[in-house]
Amino acid sequence: MGNKKTRSKQNSNGNRVGTAALGRPVERSSTKGNAPNTDLRTYSIPDYRLEHPDFTVRQRVETDHQGHEHVRYEVEGNLDAPVPPIRDSKYLDKSQAIEIYRYMLLNRKMEVALENLYKQGKVVGGVYFGLGQEACSCASAYALDKDDWFAPMIRNQGSLLVRGFGASVTMMQYMAKADSPTKGRDGTAHFGDIEKRNTVSPISMLGDLIPVMAGVALGARLQGRNLAVMTYIGDGGQSTGVTYEGINFAAVQNLGLVLFVESNLWAYSTPSEMQYRCKDLAERAIGYGIPGVIVDGTDACQVYDAAREAVERAHAGEGPTLIEAKMMRMKGHAIHDAAAYVPKPMFDFWKKRDPIARFENYLVKEKKWLTPKENQDLIAEVEAEIEAEREIAVNSPMPTPESAEGGVFCENGCHQIKPKYGMPKVKKGTGAGYKETEAAVHLK
Predict the structure, then answer these.
(1) Is residue 190 pLDDT above 50, yes or no?
(2) 70 is catalytic
(3) Which ranges in 43-133 belong to alpha helices (H)?
(4) Residues 49, 102, 225, 333: which is the catalytic one?
(5) CB 215, CB 200: distance < 8 Å
(6) Does residue 142 carry a catalytic annotation?
(7) Rounded to whole angstroms, how far apart are CA atoms 130 and 444?
(8) What is the pLDDT of residue 416?
(9) Which one in 14, 51, 66, 221 has a CA-CA gap of 20 to 30 Å to 76?
(10) What is the residue-averaged pLDDT of the chain?
(11) Domain 45-76+95-399 class?
């Protein structure tokens, strides 16, 4: 996690000062007679990007000489726009920025190692990559405090590194090794650590993590703590009903949910233009009455700043925030998907906006916080670390057949549930026979 942050100043009613940038209610008045109409309200959606890509993906259906129809996609628009600079962070200092950059490098090198392990036949299932999304994964998780809770999606493997998981852990998990968190019973990134790292395992049913994390925030509040709980959803997954239900619950209960919508342009093989009509997914925050903000998902500074402000709102008890991070997933849905449906000019456009190359240029050439020699030494150090972690994963044994029957049912109190921060604060009822709140009963 990042270094300890300086807390925002509080005003007289206990709310933090300085989070207005995330959007606040705006009254639109219209005159009917001389009386202003303040019934119409909306929220502003700040957009911190330094560029607004102007292109559209269109579907074309073609018929071959045998009469068979084939679908392909074309992209139209300005695909030659210059790459924008990195926006200076309002909060990151030199050492923090370099640390995020190192995590991003670890993220990229780990996924390259995983791809090689897959090609060597050492991965038992598929591999899900976050190529092009390293800035979003790493900088967002870096904004959390140690006590905050976190639930990654399968592409947020860089955020697991920030949270303290070694690269060998993810590798062993994909290889179904005995020393993996699931002891070889799962071949994807379905693991967490609720004891030490406050990390909830990813869920394959997209969107389901959102109400789960809202529940984590509610549980912490019942125990007297306002914590930030961060999770992610793709532009495809956000179309699920449970996503709306989870966000709405967090909004109504004013829970500290920090939701990143990783708007990466493709929901498997479906382009964004064919799954929703709104221009920006952050606009959906308006319907929940919560702040929404748009950032460039390839700019680590923008991601960190938005995440930090959302985390501070959560700590202050000011409720959830929706952050839309715009970028592109630079590989297919998984390693088995060659993404041939994506028009090549789209890949070319976003390749120029590689988050690691941009941040490297920012640190070495613009800020001069790293010399070229220091940068090369850092890259070499990261490569050596990944090679050592790969050796650990490869040398871990496969699980024994007889171990398969274990861990299916709760044995010997393995899942004892107890409050993490203290007994819930509840009010006693006054009616006859009314002793405790329902929440207290469930927590027991």
Answers:
(1) yes
(2) no
(3) 94-119
(4) 333
(5) no
(6) no
(7) 40
(8) 73
(9) 66
(10) 87
(11) alpha beta
